[in-house]
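I am writing to request your help with a piece of structural work I have in hand. The matter concerns a single protein, recorded as an amino acid sequence and a row of backbone structure tokens. Could you please explain, in whatever detail you think fit, how the structure tokens follow from the sequence? Thank you for your consideration; the sequence and its tokens are set out here:
>
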Amino acid sequence: MLYVVLGILGVIVAAALAGNVTLFSFLAAFWIYITGIILVIAGVASLFSREHRAGMIVGLSVVVLGVLYIILGVFVRNPVFLAWLIGLSLVIDGMGLILYE
């Protein structure tokens, strides 16, 4: 049932975006801010949830990369750089998990 509702919602959004470049641009910019905010929230959660020092440093670096993601999202025209930032934050978080073990 949920998939049907999501499918219908997707068709409605696609019909609204067809030919409406301004709305598409707004939604893309909004998504960049949401992604940056999620990175910051994940970094803060990691900062307070891990007891060891490496985990806290990883959390702080993910917060910094989230803020950098939001700032670069405004100025960068090529989204590959933003994908590199997300990948870098995931690699740093994975290294922090490996150092914990």
Remarks:
- The chain has four helices and no strands.
- The mean pLDDT is 85.
